[in-house]
Amino acid sequence: MRSTIVIAVLAIGCHGAVSPATGQASSRRPPGSASDPAIERHDRTVASDPRISIAFREVVARGHDDGVPIVLVHGAGGGGISSFDVPVPGYSFAEDLARAGHPAYVIDVRGWGRSSRPAALEAPPQANPPAVGSDEAVRDIAAVVDWVRAHRHRPVAVFGWATGGHWAGMFAARHPDAVSHLVMLNALYGTPGAWSMRARLEESDRPGRLSDSLGAYSLRTAAGLVQNWEANIPRADKASWRDPKVADAYASTAIESDPTSSQRTPPSARVPTGPLRDSYALASGTKLWEASDVRAATLVIRSELDFWSRPEDVAALQRELVHARRVAIESLPGATHIAFLDRPEHGRARMLELVIRFLARD
Fold this sequence. Notes:
This protein is an alpha/beta fold. The protein has helices at 80-84, 93-99, 134-152, 163-174, 198-201, 222-232, 244-256, 274-283, 311-320, 348-359, and strands at residues 6-9, 16-18, 25-27, 39-47, 53-61, 70-73, 104-108, 156-161, 179-185, 217-220, 269-272, 297-303, 327-332. Helix 4 links the parallel strand 8 and strand 9 (179-185). Helix 3 (134-152) packs across helix 4 (163-174) and helix 6 (222-232) runs antiparallel to helix 7. The longest helix is centred in the middle third of the chain and has 19 residues, at 134-152. The chain is globular and about 55 Å long. The chain starts with 5 loop residues before the first strand and ends with a helix.
């Protein structure tokens, strides 16, 4: 196991408070939940590559943390905290898992959140090719998984959403002994076929080739961060499907995590484009990892309305996960790409049920 440098930071975010007298993390409990365990949050960092520090948040229920520890891996949008620990009561996926007994670890891959930003993100976008590739992301996941295994003394589960699902699968294939459970939500997998994002990434006069103008990163405003989510909701009244406070918190948390965001008007976050380059390759049929190398129990979930993954990806994974300890394939009827941040009746409750039930089995 690699040696790591760990720095504990007493932080609770917007969900709870830190006592100035004791420095101990605490959490507010919702009304009527006196019997619920207190939720604690600890922000930490661990070394990945030389001069690369990876931030992650530990979310645990005090005295109720003997379940499978799980690392949560974000996609190519807002980052880990904004995705999985959004500061709106009832919508933190990490907290839901912790309340079910599973210590949750929310990672920010390099380029997101409090993690190190590659030098390419400090230059103008067009000065460098797409930043943060899959190999780098997998090394960052490995650094956090090593830390969790050292502190929890057991293999861990890894949950990945969208590009994070691809990264999680790639990690599980490369480190089969480190992973007990793999969960992939709305992920691509090296399968040729139609892809809704393809036209956005190609020059109009050069179909079949990734645009040379992609650059190292894109600048995402609040509107840009939720644009695809809004388009994926099949109703004109988006608030009836997704709590507006959740969308606002997702975007604002992502933007505030970029220390340069206030230097631009409107404020925006730098988002690495390496995931888009790799996703373009995956959707065109280039495999970056082999599902047959995965040994962990694997749950593949796809939202029925997802714009990112395709049914072909699920079918290929189902065919090729031949060495996984067990495989479960599930659909979220009528759900969107970001089901875990939609209202419970639009896929969130079902997704949470599937994941917790899956983790309960060895």
